[in-house]
Structures are given as C-alpha cells and as structure tokens.
C-alpha cells in the first residue's frame, strides 16, 4: 500500500513547476486515446468512404461512454483532491473504490444496451442504409469495451486526486500502443475489415481498465461497495451529468446534420471532429493539473494558492491553444490526406479548417478554466453556462445550417458560438472569485 499523504504544502502546490509535473504526464494520458482514434480513423479511411462514415456515426454513439468516463474522472478527481489536500489519503482512495463500482455497473449496462439498440441508433443518425448497417456492426462489438473504458476513467480520477500521474501514464499508454499495433493488423492482414477496428478498441479499453482495477486492489483492502457513498457521488455528479448531456446533444446533432450533406461531408466532419477532440483533450492537460491542485489547495484551506493556480493555468491554456492553432495552420494542406485519399472529403475539410484554427486559442482558455471550476466544485455554474451555450448557440446554428443548406460551415459556426459563450462566462466567473470555497468538501 502507498504511504499516507503528507499535509498540503501551499508554495509547492501553486508553483508553475508543480503544474507542469502534473500536466505533462496527463497530456500523454489524455492524448493517448484520441491519438489511437486518429490512427483508427486513418486505417478505416483507407477502406473507403462508407466505412469512414460508419465509424463517424457509430463513434458518435460510443462517445456516450467516453462522456460518462470523463464525467466520472472529473468528478472523482475533484472529490478525491479535496480529501487529499485535507491530509486524508484513505478517504481520497475510497472515492475511487466507489467510483469503480459505479463504472463497472454502468459499463456492463451500456454494453448490453448496445446489442439491442445499435441498429435503430445507427439508422437514425446515418444518411444511407449501407452506412447505417456498417455502423451498427461496429458499435455492437466496440461497446464491449465500455466496462474497461469506465473503470479506467474512475482510476484516472482518484489517482489524479492524490496527484499520482505516473501510473496512469503507464497504464493508458501501454494499452493504446498495443491496440494501435493490432488495429491495422486486424483490419488488413487478418481481413476482419471494419470489425477489426472495433476489436482493437475493445482490447485497448479492457487492458487499460484491468490495469487500474489491479492498482486499486493493491492500494486498499476496503473494496466493498457502499450504496450510500455511490448515491452521494451520483447526486454530486448530477450537474456534470446534465452538462455532459448538453455536449452529447450538440455533437450527436452535428453528426446527424453533417450526414445529411452527404458521405463526403460526414467523412470530413469525422476527421475534423476527431482532430478537435484530440486537441481538446491535449489542452485539457493543464485543466487536469488545475482540478488536482485547486481541489487540494481549497481542501487544505489555501484560497490564495487556488487563485494562483487558476491564474497560471489560464495563461498556459491560452498559449497552448495558440501553439495548436499554428500546428493546424501549417498542416492545412496535408493533414486530411493522412486519413483518406478521397478528394471530395478533402474539399469539405477545407470548409471546416478556418473555423478549426480560429477557435483553438479561445478553447485553450475555456478548457483550463473548466478544470479550475471543476476542481473547486463549482459545477452548477458550469452546468448552467453549458446549457445556455448549447440551447442558445450550438443547436440553433446547426439546425439552421440544415434547413438552409449551409453545409459544414454552418455546423462549425455552431461550435464557434458554443466556445464564445463559454469563453465569456468562464472568464467572468474566474475574475469574480465566487468559485473560491475552502474546506474538505463543498456542497452543490
């Protein structure tokens, strides 16, 4: 078992060096899964436009599991970090135990539901029957990895809370490297095609979840489920759940609208959206550091330390967004070709690219401040502004794009509104200091 945590040390917690020590391993962990998805997209893209469109549709449905995993990880990090900052490592790990029971239960339920509803969901989202049939087959197999995916998310949550970023780095990176090797082998030499892609996903998620479960067993012997604590976690996580549901409604609607513009449009949207997710999760590295350090600082009673972390990660998030924007600008003419040789998809990607580049610096600030506010437990505010951004910005814009045939430019204009509303409101909240509440826990 790990040694007890030492009391919170404010100067070290607020230092830029400490932020980097947590953010850099988190960057690799966050980037590993979307990087594998990019590899998977490139492998499938060379099977043709229909398999690529099928992965776009079914991947949007599977993002439900990824969303639940992110919700679980972020909620667990905030709760565990406050207890760790108050000097109670055992209580922080206990949050991980109960989150893992919840993860396993929800993961198995999702895997079972996918077997029954993959077909209707795929046909509702896809623009043509051939794409829908291929998407349903991929989804039924890939959903078997949901329990492992959610166990890994819960494990990431409590380990980040106790500021252990080394083991998640090994667990996630190892599993995804293995699957990135298996994906092209199963798709091409073995000859499983699109099914091989789904099997590789299941392997990565199951191996990673197994690693985190093993680490939890090594950490504590108190492994029995506690319905009371799980119920508290569910209640505390309700605002993150509603916030995540708003995001899911946005991205599922975007895929559905892009599908109505044709196979080339949804293929280009899939490439750009996966690159966006990759950029977002990579930029979230500083947000992960913020969750851990802000939660620990407030749990240890240091409001000044929490403010110092918030200021530094906001600057770091904006600068990181600029770096990503420069990279995407430099690769505008070549990046779509990494995923498919189809010129029609390249032409549609060119419509999206200016939006992609322009949004990244603002997104970097938004994601950093999301981490600050989640670490502080200020999730009710995040819920409200996300609902406002979705209902008043993203969703009206993309459905207007559909009805007036504005194409992918209209869809990505909706994303711009989503980011703009969140940028203005989160910066205002940060400057107001209303999020600063000290103590080992924070009521919702």
UniProtKB/TrEMBL annotation:
<feature type="transmembrane region" description="Helical">
    <location>
        <begin position="381"/>
        <end position="404"/>
    </location>
</feature>
<feature type="transmembrane region" description="Helical">
    <location>
        <begin position="170"/>
        <end position="192"/>
    </location>
</feature>
<dbReference type="InterPro" id="IPR048279">
    <property type="entry name" value="MdtK-like"/>
</dbReference>
<feature type="transmembrane region" description="Helical">
    <location>
        <begin position="351"/>
        <end position="369"/>
    </location>
</feature>
<dbReference type="InterPro" id="IPR044644">
    <property type="entry name" value="DinF-like"/>
</dbReference>
<feature type="transmembrane region" description="Helical">
    <location>
        <begin position="275"/>
        <end position="301"/>
    </location>
</feature>
<feature type="transmembrane region" description="Helical">
    <location>
        <begin position="313"/>
        <end position="339"/>
    </location>
</feature>
<keyword id="KW-0812">Transmembrane</keyword>
<keyword id="KW-1003">Cell membrane</keyword>
<comment type="similarity">
    <text>Belongs to the multi antimicrobial extrusion (MATE) (TC 2.A.66.1) family.</text>
</comment>
<keyword id="KW-1133">Transmembrane helix</keyword>
<feature type="transmembrane region" description="Helical">
    <location>
        <begin position="99"/>
        <end position="118"/>
    </location>
</feature>
<dbReference type="InterPro" id="IPR002528">
    <property type="entry name" value="MATE_fam"/>
</dbReference>
<keyword id="KW-0472">Membrane</keyword>
<feature type="transmembrane region" description="Helical">
    <location>
        <begin position="20"/>
        <end position="39"/>
    </location>
</feature>
<feature type="transmembrane region" description="Helical">
    <location>
        <begin position="240"/>
        <end position="263"/>
    </location>
</feature>
<feature type="transmembrane region" description="Helical">
    <location>
        <begin position="198"/>
        <end position="217"/>
    </location>
</feature>
<feature type="transmembrane region" description="Helical">
    <location>
        <begin position="51"/>
        <end position="74"/>
    </location>
</feature>
<feature type="transmembrane region" description="Helical">
    <location>
        <begin position="138"/>
        <end position="158"/>
    </location>
</feature>
<keyword id="KW-0813">Transport</keyword>
<dbReference type="Pfam" id="PF01554">
    <property type="entry name" value="MatE"/>
</dbReference>
<protein>
    <submittedName>
        <fullName>MATE family efflux transporter</fullName>
    </submittedName>
</protein>
<feature type="transmembrane region" description="Helical">
    <location>
        <begin position="410"/>
        <end position="428"/>
    </location>
</feature>
């Amino acid at each position: 078992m790990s040694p007890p945590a030492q009391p919170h040390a404010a100067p070290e917690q607020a230092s830029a060096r400490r932020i980097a020590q947590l953010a850099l391993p988190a960057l690799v962990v966050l980037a590993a899964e979307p990087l594998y998805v990019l590899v998977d997209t490139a492998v499938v893209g060379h099977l043709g436009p229909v398999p690529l469109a099928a992965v776009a549709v079914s991947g949007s449905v599977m993002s439900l599991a990824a969303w639940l995993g992110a919700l679980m990880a972020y909620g667990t990090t905030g709760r565990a970090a406050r207890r760790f900052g108050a000097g109670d490592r055992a209580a922080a790990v206990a949050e991980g135990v109960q989150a893992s029971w919840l993860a396993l239960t929800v993961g198995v339920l999702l895997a079972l539901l996918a077997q029954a509803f993959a077909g209707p969901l795929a046909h509702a989202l896809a623009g043509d029957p051939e794409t829908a049939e291929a998407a349903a087959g991929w989804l039924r197999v890939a959903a078997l990895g949901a329990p492992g995916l959610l166990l890994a998310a819960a494990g990431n949550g409590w380990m980040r809370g106790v500021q252990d970023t080394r083991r998640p780095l090994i667990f996630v990176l190892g599993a995804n490297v293995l699957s990135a090797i298996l994906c092209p082998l199963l798709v091409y030499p073995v000859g499983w095609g699109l099914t091989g892609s789904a099997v590789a996903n299941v392997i990565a998620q199951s191996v990673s979840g197994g690693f985190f479960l093993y680490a939890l067993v090594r950490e504590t012997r108190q492994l029995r489920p506690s319905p009371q604590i799980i119920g508290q976690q569910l209640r505390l996580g309700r605002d993150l759940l509603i916030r995540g549901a708003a995001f899911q409604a946005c991205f599922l609607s975007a895929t559905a609208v892009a599908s109505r513009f044709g196979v080339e449009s949804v293929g280009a949207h899939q490439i750009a959206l996966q690159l966006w997710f990759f950029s977002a999760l990579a930029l979230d590295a500083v947000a992960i550091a913020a969750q851990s350090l802000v939660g620990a600082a407030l749990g240890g009673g240091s409001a000044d330390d929490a403010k110092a972390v918030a200021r530094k990660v906001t600057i770091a998030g904006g600068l990181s967004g600029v770096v990503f924007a420069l990279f995407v600008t430099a690769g505008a003419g070549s990046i779509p070709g990494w995923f498919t040789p189809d010129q029609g998809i390249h032409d549609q990607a060119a419509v999206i690219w200016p939006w992609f580049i322009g949004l990244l610096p603002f997104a970097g600030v938004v994601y950093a401040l999301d981490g600050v506010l989640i670490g502080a437990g200020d999730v009710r505010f995040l819920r409200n502004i996300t609902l406002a951004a979705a209902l008043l910005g993203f969703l009206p814009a993309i459905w207007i794009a559909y009805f007036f045939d504005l194409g992918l430019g209209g869809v990505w204009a909706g994303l711009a509104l989503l980011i703009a509303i969140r940028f203005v409101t989160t910066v205002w909240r940060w400057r107001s200091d209303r999020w600063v509440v000290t103590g080992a826990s924070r009521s919702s």
